[in-house]
Each structure stands twice: as C-alpha cells, then as structure tokens.
Amino acid sequence: MENTATAGNKGKRVRSDCHVTIRLTNAGGIDIELTSKVKFMFGADIMRRIHEVLDFFEIENAHVVMEDSGALPFVMAARLEAAVKKLVTSEKSFLTEYLEANRYETTKDRNRFSRLYLPGNTPSLMINAGLHHPDGLILDLEDAVAFDKKHEARFLVRNALRSLNLYGAEKMVRINQIPAGLEDLDFIVPHGVNLILVPKCESAEQITAVNRRIAELQKLHNLNAPVWLMPIIESALGVIKAYEIASSAENIVAMAIGLEDYTADLGVRRTNEATESFFARSMVVNACKAARIQAIDSVFSDIADMEALRQNVLTSKSLGFDGMGCIHPRQIRVIHENFAPDKAEIDRAKKIVNAFMDATEKGLGVVSLGTKMIDAPVVKRAQKVINLAISLQLISADWRNEFLAPAAE
Amino acid sequence: MKKYDKLVTNAAGRVVPTFFNGKEHTPYLGVGKYKPTGRKYAPPIATCANYPADGDKRVPSIKDALVRAGIRDGMTISSHHHFRNGDLIAMQVFDAAHELGIKDLVWFPSASFPCQERMIQYLEDGTVQRIEGSMNGPLGKFTSEGGMRGMSVLRSHGGRYQAVQDGDVHIDIAIIAAPTADPFGNATGDRGPAACGLLGFALADSQYADRVIVVTDNIVPFPCIPWQIHGNYVDFVVEVDKVGLPERIVSGTTEITKSPDRLLIAEMTAQFCDEAGIVRDGFSYQAGAGGTALSIGIYFEQMLRERKMKARFIRAGSNKYPVKMLEDGLVDYILDGQTFDLEGVRSMRENPGHVNTSPFTSYNYHGKGNFASMVDVVVLGATEVDVDFNANVVTHSDGYLLHGIGGWQNCLFSKCTILPVPLFRDRMPVIVDRVTTLCGPGELIDVIVTERGIAINPLRQDLIEKLKNSKLPIKTIQELKEEAEQICGRPEKPQLSDELVSVIKWVDGTVLDAVRKVIV
C-alpha cells in the first residue's frame, strides 16, 4: 500500500466539505496541520476528531493535513476514514451517530411522485435537501460521482444515511452498475437505506444478485426492515426485458426509465417532444402495470424552464407514469402539483365512489351515475384517486359527508 | 491623548467607551430613551455677495476646489456611495489631499466599497486618521487588525443624518459626485451618462457642511432640473471626464436568488407575512437588496396579482422588480432611498410614482417622525442573531468587520421586522448565545425565519397568536439555537483582544457596542 492518501474536496468553490491528506510516518506521533474557515469556533473539536479517527484505526504515527471548508462532523469523519482505508486494511468502520429522526421504514405503495438526485460526493448539496420535501432522496454513487471518487463517496453516503436528517424522505441510494454496485451494498444496507436504485438493468439475474447480497447483509447485521428496489431501464435490451425485470422480485416497488442512456443506446438525439422514446416509455409503463408496481419517468434536465417541466409531467402522467426524477429542488413542487389529481379528477372520482357506496348501502348489484352504468375498474380507479387526494391532504378523510352535505340542506 | 477612554457598561450590557476621538459620547440608554435637548447644529452664515452673481461657480479641478475650500490638517471630508462600487471621485479627493501634504483627515463616507481599498495607504501614511462610516472587505480587515489610528465609528444612514444635524460630526468639506449639474451647483442623479438615480445620502452634507463641492461629468446650462441638490448650498463646481461607472451601481445582490435553500426561506417568509395578515390591500413593505429579500418581493407580487390587490408603497432600494410592479399597477408608489440598477434609474426619471427620498424623510432620529416606522414589514439580513433576538450585521462571527450598517438599524422600527437567515452557514451557526457585535436590540426584531424553523419574539404575542395553527414550523429561538448546535456542534467563542478598534452607534447617536481588535 501507499504511504500517502487523500480524500475529499478543496478549492475556492467548495463548501461544507474538507480535504484531508494523511502520510504515514515511522515515528513522531500524530502531527496535524489544520486550515479551516471555522477554526475559531471548532479548531479544537476538529483536532480531537482527527485524533479520534486515527486512534480508532490504530494509526500512531502520521502527518495529517486537514484543509477544511466548513465540513459538518459526519462529512469530516467520512473523509478521514476514506483516506485511512486507502492506507490500512481494517474490518472496522468509524460510524457516526445514527439519528433517531432517520430511523424509519417506508411502505411498498407509498407515493413516489418525486425523487431528488444528490451527487454522492458533494456534501453541500445534501445538507438541506430533505427540507424541500421530495418523496425520495437519492444519494447517487453512480453517474454523479467521478471514477476516482467512488471509494470516498461510499463513506460519505453511509454517514449521510446515519447522521444527516433527511426529514422523512424515502432514503434512496443509486448504486453502481452490477456487478460493481454489489460492493456498494455493504455501505448502505446496514445503515437504513429504504430503497436501492439498480441502474442500467438488463436482466432479472442482476436483481437476483442484488437481493442475494442484501439478504446476506440483513442476516449478518440482524436487520429486518424492508429494502425496496427500483431498477432503472436505460438500454434497448432493458426495454425489451422490462417485464421480466419488473416481475423478478417481491421487493421491487417501482421501475424507472433513464432516457439519456437509452437515447444514446439507440443512437438518437433526446428531444423535448420525446417521440424517440415513446415506445420505451410505453413499454416500461406497461411492464410496471403488469407487475403491479409504480412506473417512474426519467428526469427533466432544463432546470430553469418550469413551464416545460409542467408539460412534461402532464404528458408523463397521461402515459401512465406515477412519478419522475428531479435534479433540482425547484422541480419538486411542479412535479407534485401536476402528478397529483386535479380538481376535475377528484370531483369525478367523488361522484363515482359515492355512487358505488350508495349502491352497496342499498344492496344494489349495479352501480350507476345518472343514466350511465359504471364498471368495477372505473370504481377502482376512482377510489385510487380519492385515496391519493386524502394522502396529499387535498380532501379530508370524511370527504363523503362534506360531499353529501349540500344535498341535505 | 488616548484613542478611547471611560469604559462603561451600557443599557444593552455592552462595555463601550464614552470618550473617543477627543469627545465625550453618551452610552446607549435603551430604545427611544435618549432625548436630546438644545438646538440643532448649523453651518456658518454664508453671504451671496461672496459668490459670483452670474451663478458660475466652476473651478478647474478637485485639488483647486479643495484649496479654495481651505483644506487643512484634521478636517472632516465627506463623500457618498451613490455609485456604489463605481465611485471614481472619493479616491481622487484624497489623492489631491495627499499631494497637498495634508494630514490627519477624517473620511466621512455614507458607505465604503472595494473600489476605495486604496484608502488603506492614506490611513497608513497619515493622510487619513480615521473613517467614520463603513468598513468593508480590505478596509474592514485593516481596521479589525488595529491599523487605524483613530477610533472608527459605524453609523446607520439615519444615524449619519442625526450626527450631522446635532453636530456630533462637523463636515468641513463635502464632496458630492453628481451625474448632472449646472454651473450654479444644482445637481441631480437621475440623468446624465453616469446616471445613478438619486443623491439622497448627500442631502445632509449639502445643508450642513462648511463647504460643498459638486463634481460632475455632465454640465448643463442653468437650471438643472430636477435639482435634487440645491445649488444655493454649493460653493464650487468641478467638471471631470468621468464621475462614476454607472454599470457598477448594479451590485451582485440585485438579482433574485437561484439557491433553492434561500428560495425556501424567502417562501416561508412570504407565507408567514400572509398568515400574519400583513399582506393585504394597501400594505407596505421594504424591498431590501440581496437575493432572499428580492425573492420575497416576488412572492408578495404573486399574492397581490392573484388576489387583485395593490400595495400602497414599497420603500426601496429599487431595481427592475419593484419597477415592474409599479408599472403593472401593483403598487401606488416606490419611495426610493437608492437605486440598485439602471431600470430603477430610468423609472425614477420617468415615473412620478417613483419618488426619491433621503435619510431625512425615512430614518432621521431628529425628524418629527420617519417613514421607516410606518412600513408594515421589512426583511433584513444578519450575520448572527442571539437567543434574545439581538442581531449583528457588521462583523463576521470571527470578529472581522465585513459590512456597514446602512439603513439596517433604521428599518428595525417598521411594524414587523423579519430576519430571514440560514440556521447555519457551512458549519457556522447563525443563531448563537450572544452576538459578537450588537447592532440591533432584540426588542425591535420580531421574527427570525430559517430553513429549519421560524422563531417569533415573545414580545410579539399578537403574532404568536395569529400563527398558532399555522403549518409553518414555528419554534422557539432556543430550539433553533439547539438545532443548529446539534448539526454543527457547539462553537467556541472567538478569542478577541481587549483593545477596541471601532464603535457602533445607535440611531440616536449613543454608543451601542464596540468592536474588538482581532488577534492575528
């Protein structure tokens, strides 16, 4: 092994991060050079933390250069450990506090309108992400992390899952493509991840491999919380195998399409009209519905154009998607507002569900609204809209009393 | 003579000097407690017989004007920040004074900017003894590290007017850089190649200085209309090639923020105002500079537009956003204290609803009332806020001076003062036990909005009552402080020297706090 290692980021534009260089020496104990914009407030604390991590990994002699741009404690610990583990082999992990606020599970059928991508090696973008209340937060170990930063990003993502308050968002991680991504699982499964995105998925075997490793880790760490999967279809082959993938495991709750890679695979340009991906999107939606899971659309990349995003969401919803990815917090609201049922949809659903309840109460076998008969699937879809509207607090749980009230007056 | 002396603990619990720069000063007594008596300060009696009957007061150069104005050691020379970072005149004045071998001048700017960084060399070589105004960037660093011989004094815009009016500061020579003027000295800021809007910060100087010099690059024949500055106060007029760089009056803080976190804080602030019943037909607000404040204005605009309501007036800092509201009929008047972009300048020139104001109308402690206290809501920034709602706007948490006070202290008198701030910056908590430097007493600060929660001052039970069923995350200030510390850790206090380098004046001229020297 080398005797010098670095981890983290530095530079004028870097915030809430640090860069550490550790050089192992033969004698002289631990010698630390610290520069930090918060030295006047946290200088002693930072020195203590460096000693603590080095002690933990039984490093007795080293020269440490810490260049800090205001890293929060969980970030600094991740950077230190990442550098140490380039120098020494250790089975131990220096785990930061697992916040009570982050100890939650998610359900299979929860709303997944929005999921916000966060680059897995950029702390400044993670810190307030949960405050924007996306349905899911994706700590991305794959495309958003440069190859030579993959190692250190794992420690940062692990510590973020434990120690960064994510304010109730579903805790998601996008691992690297299988098989490389299997190693990522060790850093996330024991640390409360709710859902794992499996990128560039092309076969059921990849899902099986992921689940096998998850099961091993769950056994090893004695875990019983569910870990959901969301495969991402990003190639022509993936599209063809969409149903096989979607139906390959019980813990798959949703499947997404990734259009950047898909259009590249097809050798076409991605356009705003998206005619080139219409087939693929429809295939994915159809496969998801057949497998009774949620269909999730690709991200919309123009973060400045909210009107184009809105149109995109409406199209997406009309194709049958249940949610989409986002790359900027400002997109979240537009996505939520436009995936949510609108007033006309809710009003119609109320009428249908009410007619159904009327018929049931009166013991009638046939549901009708006015002169029209209503089929069971229509009722079912209307009930789904009502449930969604209640969960989004668009209508109250006893909406039917309010619905009937004007008639009673 | 000692730089400062007679330390006392003032009513805010801060240890301050009551003797500095050769004079006695009153310690802060509490909000509205200091009631001065006597008569206002007045400039020497002038005689029109001493001025050219044809009204032509032009002299060949700034240096010549300074000599004719009788410049000598120890004088106080004022300048203004209407061109913000595009000012070209202040440095030329001190270059001329330096060439004349003048020493120990006091520079009394309405604000300083990075373009005046070169002033440090005159502070070092003795041309300038001290600055009474604001010290930003390199000047702030120089002052904080103890480089200035005299005590620097920081005042609000209103405090500057007050200090001139009650004689705390005697201006020997005022230099007024004007985008347009006539040979008599009538001057305006709203037109000319270097149009910057208005010249309100120079109003007191024109009225009270012993000698007044107008400098312009756009001489028009008498009369210069409008005359924001009256030539009847002016001694000399100097024509130069270029008076200022108008493109630099636009600062980086006059665009709406794109930061999602700041937008969140802006949105929470606007929603708070709405739920508190502040946003209604005929309301008024202060549109500050800075991305967050501007974004709040955008949310107000949306609410007014959707509800077909209209604000009565916006106190500004104007730029293209309030101008658009004025032109779209969403507000009756902009009462403008300084223009932040060229759209603001254009509007002020063209639109009778866009009115120029001054610290006299808005902020002055010695006035018979102020516009600032009639504003329904104001949003302001802060570097730190403490658990008693006291706020700091001039020093960084490490003790370095980094901002002037500007109109900040004066605006605290609005009906509702809100500070939208992040809970922490990188790893630095913004909500602390005790602010490093006290600039605004907590009793005037009503609401702190952070991305992780909103704290309402317990003195405002009315607001607490109105928001009690809100879905907004209402917390106590103590809870916010603890939340910041859970995330960042508990900070140590910066180690500062016992030596004082600067004093903070309150709006009434009393000494609110002192800034300590930083240990390098």
Characteristic terms for this protein:
heterodimer; A: 409 residues; alpha/beta; Ribosomal Protein S5, domain 2; TIM Barrel; eight-stranded parallel beta barrel; four-stranded mixed β-sheet; 14 strands; B: 520 residues; Glutaconate Coenzyme A-transferase; 2 domains; nine-stranded mixed β-sheet; 14 helices
Q: Care to give the gist of this entry?
A:
Chain A is an alpha/beta fold and 409 residues long. Chain A has 3 domains: 4-87, Ribosomal Protein S5, domain 2, CATH 3.30.230; 100-339, Phosphoenolpyruvate-binding domains (TIM Barrel, Alpha-Beta Barrel); 343-408, no CATH class.
Average pLDDT confidence of chain B is 94
CATH class of the largest domain in chain B: Alpha Beta
CATH homologous superfamily name of the largest domain in chain A? Phosphoenolpyruvate-binding domains
CATH topology label of the largest domain in chain B = Glutaconate Coenzyme A-transferase
Tell me roughly what share of residues is in helical segments of chain B. Answer: 10-25%
Rg over C-alpha atoms of chain A, rounded to the nearest angstrom:
25 Å
Domain count of chain B: 2
Gyration radius over CA of chain B: 23 Å
Largest interface: A-B, 22 and 20 residues
- Label the CATH architecture of the largest domain in chain A: Alpha-Beta Barrel
Number of helices of chain A: 15
User: What is the 3D shape of chain A?
Assistant: elongated
Low-confidence runs of chain B: none
Supply the helix-strand structural class of chain A. Answer: alpha/beta
In the sheet with the most strands of chain A, the strands line up as: 5-6-7-8-9-10-11-12
